[in-house]
Amino acid sequence: MTDLTLQRVSVPTATDYIELLKPRVMSLVVFTGFIGLLVAPGHLHPVLAAVAVLCIAVGAGASGAINMWYDRDIDAVMARTAKRPIPSGRVEPQDALGFGVFLAVAAVVVMGLAVNWAAASILALATAFYVFVYTMWLKRRTPQNIVIGGAAGAFPPMIGWTAVTGSLDIAPLVLFLLIFLWTPPHFWALALFRNADYTRAGVPMMPVVAGERATKVQMLVYTLVLLPVAAAPWWLGFAGPTYLAGSLVLGAIFVVCALRVLRSDDHKPARQMFGFSILYLFLLFALLGGEHLLRGGV
């Protein structure tokens, strides 16, 4: 029996299955969902609030597991993903698929039974959008994959809000739009310094298809559009002046990052912009939630 065969029949560990859930990606998704729940008008029992956040986390993780099952062929040829549980042989593809489907269904059912079916429906839509629209349809077919598919990661604030209120409003839609517009410059920054990976795997990311220059210009455009959208919670009255000031400062830094990427011939600014983009979104939602708590929100 070869070493490869031994690797294939080895028993996966709990850590391998946790890795299938993409915990680093999930953490930001869960945080934005929690803030959506926190700033929503009304009251939700703390236990039910915890259940709602857990369902968002499990649903996001389930989407990641199914994505890893479907993308196992391209993951195997990309340096960034080659050590994931499926291409490295630690988890069998059918096990990853079953794990993901079970968690996706469980998250929706528990959300519906414990919280409300409106939030459960949006959670189901987010999961289906990520799996069927982004992973299976767009990712391998168009350079706009992350633009349209990015909507999947923008649903959590809507889910959190609806868990409390049972319905949608303009506020969670603005938060959805904010994440939707943030996703392209965030992900294209990664695609710039991982261009060789995507080229080798045949994934039509924007830098692969349109070139780096065109990608950098579009990144700058998105960061400029984000400025007024990120300030919209203040204009709409569900955020205060502290959030407004923070959003303008963070937005200006994001624009400067995009300008540095545009003017540079190496990928160091793109790496820095990718790192800052995560901090940008986290701080925006932290400001929103923190300000709400300081104003006496529960």
Automatic annotation (TrEMBL):
Keywords: Cell membrane, Heme biosynthesis, Membrane, Transferase, Transmembrane, Transmembrane helix. Pathway: Porphyrin-containing compound metabolism; heme O biosynthesis; heme O from protoheme: step 1/1. It is an enzyme of class 2 (transferase). The chain crosses the membrane at residues 25-42, 48-70, 96-114, 120-138, 145-164, 170-193, 214-236, 242-262, 274-294. It catalyses: heme b + (2E,6E)-farnesyl diphosphate + H2O = Fe(II)-heme o + diphosphate. It is a multi-pass membrane protein. Pfam families: UbiA. Its EC number is 2.5.1.141. It is found in: Cell membrane. Belongs to the UbiA prenyltransferase family. Protoheme IX farnesyltransferase subfamily. NCBIfam families: cyoE_ctaB, PRK04375.1-2. Carbon 2 of the heme B porphyrin ring is defined according to the Fischer nomenclature. This is Protoheme IX farnesyltransferase. It comes from Azospirillum oleiclasticum. The lineage of its organism: Bacteria, Pseudomonadati, Pseudomonadota, Alphaproteobacteria, Rhodospirillales. The gene is ctaB.
